[in-house]
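Input.
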Amino acid sequence: MIIFDGVKDPDAFEEIVSFIRGFQGSLKDAVIAAATEFNCSKSAIRSVYRKAERMELFDLVLVDDQSIRIPIAQVKSCNGFERACLAAIRRFHGTLKHLDLPVWKIEAVGGGAEAAYRVTGG
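Output.
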């Protein structure tokens, strides 16, 4: 299961993006056709497309300082790594708040030191 951050309806989002990417013609014509097809404004379609261009997939794991790695989730976010971590925390808050987390952090698989988000116990 993939968690989406920054998207209210992931199914509609994916449908609009695949429609635009599969459209034969200019981006402007694709936006007009998508607005007609999905019955929404051109600005909403452009906004969806801009988010899709920024969208990244993060494989998040919970890591302690003794190299224990627990997979959490895959998160698609158009707002960066930190927002992806917050989306995972919101999704699994019941599990994470009951863990003793004094030295744990969330990392992206393959990420370096710059891709770490410290988690504190609740």
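Strands lie at 2-5, 56-63, 69-77, 105-108, 116-118.
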